[in-house]
Known about the structure:
Number of strands: 23
Radius of gyration: 30 Å
Strand content: over 45%
Oligomer: single chain
Amino acid sequence: xxxxxxxxxxxxxxxxxxxxxxxxxVGLQAAKLHDQxxxxxxxxxxxxxxxxxxxxxLFRSVALTKLTVADPPKGRAxxxxxxxxxxxxxxxxxHDPHFTAGLRPVMAVIQTRPAVGTGMKEVLEKVPELASAxxxxxxSIDGGAASYLDIPAFQHKFPQAKGGQMDVKWGGLTGKxxxxxxxxxxxxxxxxxxxxxxxQDGEFRMEGMRGQFDxxxxxxxxxxxxxxxxxxGIEAAEKGHSVFTLASFGIKAQSRVDGDKINGSIRVDFxxxxxxxxxxxxxxxxxxxxxxxxxxLARFQKLAPVLQREGMENSNAARSQMKGMFxxxxxxxxxxxxxxxxxxxxxxxxxxxxxGKARLAFDGNGQDLSRNILALxxxxxxxxxxxxxxxxxxxxxxxxxxxxxxxxxxxxxxDAGQLAARxxxxxxxxxxxxxxxxxxxxxxxxxxxxGNRLGMGLSNVH
Length: 462
């Protein structure tokens, strides 16, 4: 018995200092990560993050961080504070529904909640449920991380500026985000079931908003993957009359590596959209961009943080310089002979339908198109087809040509008719069974519209 106690005590005396040392080391690393987090967030010109305090303990550290969201054009700013409770590994015992690690080693667990302080005290008094809002981040030993976001549901009444009360019913927000041990690996999702705002002047309703994304390292420092956002429905009404309706909206973007290039696509669709002027839907559009130069995209990516940090709108010289940089990168991107294509464009309306497709590519026969703008123009190989119902064409034309909303005036109708007559006479569009159609192509410096060739003198450029 004494021998067993001696062995256990010896093991304890060996492991205890090792555990304390490991916990102390993790505390140091957590402090470094906190500083890195603040530095990265400060890359945005509208978000300023500063450390108010950082109290490091042996098994747990507590950081108080201040976030200020600025709106320079309006000269306003909103500040609030967050409390980060950092539990040091290698073992963390925490009562939380998203953390059940037990004896599984972790680097640290960070629990982020709103602080009752500047900018939040009044909010938490009005909406006490927000005090339990939480972002829980688990940092793994292997370098990965998983975060869980919970903003609880609530229902409260708030006073309106014009008198009366506004009833807000928030369905909550949950999210999960994972970052792999390898750079660029990330997966995430979020879910917001509903939001209802009901006031004396109107009502706003949103249901079923969901988002998800995944990414991994591509080439040249570019991450590729997919992201999607869907909304079950949005509806806004004023004084009992619907002013906006959107049903079954979705957008999905994808990108992938193809050799030494990047291919990407975007799909947008919805079942119904009504703004009170014109009923739209169903709608679907598929767009693809192929053979994009990864090195040029990497330059765009590096430039993005600069745009966030600098107030370009306040300096004409800086704005001019930035335009020049964008023009150069755009020319370099086109010199790689990318391809752009609208594979599908289908829109149904209560005034008829609109369909179309288009493609843009570059030939060039091995020429360096980045140094010769005329050669770049001559290398264009483009085509487009469009069909629009006559009723929809006249509706759009009358609204565009009508003076200050007088779309139904006799003058607006006459102007729309004259526009259609000119386009038909010039054969830029043709009349086909209640629809106006147009087909155009541009190749070797020659523009062809509905079978009529219009040379542009670029075919012999070298």
